[in-house]
Design brief:
With about 55 residues, the chain is of the alpha+beta class. About 50% of the residues lie in helices and about 30% in strands.
């Protein structure tokens, strides 16, 4: 299972857990329709650790 953070154009965000390729495809489709941003959860944690220090 992979975790992703979707950041929507209006500024809100939501964590998504992706179990397979089909779920990932649906996330990519949502990005195209909403002009959203998708970050892998590991990247989010790295940014958080940089901000904390």
């Amino acid at each position: 299972m992979e975790k992703y953070l979707m950041i929507y154009p209006d500024g809100h965000s939501k964590q998504h857990e992706v179990l397979d390729k089909l779920e990932f495809y649906h996330l990519l489709y949502e990005i195209d329709n909403n002009y959203s941003r998708l970050l892998k959860w590991d990247v989010v944690e790295e940014i958080w650790n940089e901000v904390k220090t």
